Amino acid sequence: MANDSDGMTSANTGADVDWDARAASFDEEPDHGLRDPEVRRAWAERLRSWLPRRAGDVLDLGCGTGSLSLLASEQGHRVTGVDRSPAMVGLAREKLAGRDAVFLVGDAAAPPVAEQRFDAVLVRHVLWALPDPGRALRHWAGLLRPGGRLVLVEGVWGTTVPVGIPAERLTGLLAPIAGQVRVERLSGDPLLWGGEVTDERYAVVAVCGASGQERGEAVAAGE
C-alpha cells in the first residue's frame, strides 16, 4: 500500500513505512475503512461510475485492507487484490470472505497476475509513490483486456513541500497508452474524505486497447 494523504513528506513515499504495523489501525481513516455510511455511499457511487457497467474482472492494486475491493465486489465484479503488506492482505481476505475475490501479496508496480486478464485496473494513491510511474502505467495497460480501463485515484498533498502527481502530468503519461481520458476532480466532495480538503485530489479513467471512437463512447458512458 503506498502512502496515503496523512503525514506525507517528500522523503516519506511509502517505501519506508511499515504497513504491516499500520494495518490494524489503517481503517480508522474515513476514506480507508469507509465505516461512515455517507463516506461509503460516496465512494460506492463514484466507483460505480468509474468501473464497467457489466460485471467483470477488477484488479485492485495497493488494495490495503480491501475497502474498495469490497465495494467493487458488492457491485458484482470479480476482484483480485494485490498489496505488498501481508497484514493488509490478511485483513482484505477477512473483509471479503465468501466473495468472489482473491488477494495476493506482491508489488503493485509488477503484480503477480497474467496479461490481458482484467476489465479494469483500480489504483488509489499508489502511482505517485512509484519510481517510474510511466513504466507502471504501461505494464498495467498490458494487464487489461482490449477495451479495458485504468481507474486511477491520485492527487498532490501538502503545501510547503507538496508531494504527489498532478492530473496534467498523469494525463500526459497516459496519452500514448489510452489517448482519450476522463479526469474527475474530487477535492470538492468532502464526503469522500470525511471532511473538507484543500489539496488536489482527482480520478482519471482511461480506456485502453480500443479505437478512438470506442474509447470516447466508453469513457463518456461509463460502460
Automatic annotation (TrEMBL):
Recorded superkingdom: Bacteria
Alphabetically ordered keywords of this record: Methyltransferase, S-adenosyl-L-methionine, Transferase
Region Disordered, residue ranges: 1-20
Segments forming domain Methyltransferase type: 59-152
GO molecular-function term, one example from the UniProt record: methyltransferase activity
Stored Pfam families: Methyltransf_11
GO process terms (BP): methylation
Biased segments, Polar residues type: 1-13
Family annotation (PANTHER family): METHYLTRANSFERASE, UBIQUINONE BIOSYNTHESIS O-METHYLTRANSFERASE, MITOCHONDRIAL
Name of the featured protein: SAM-dependent methyltransferase
Organism: Streptomyces africanus
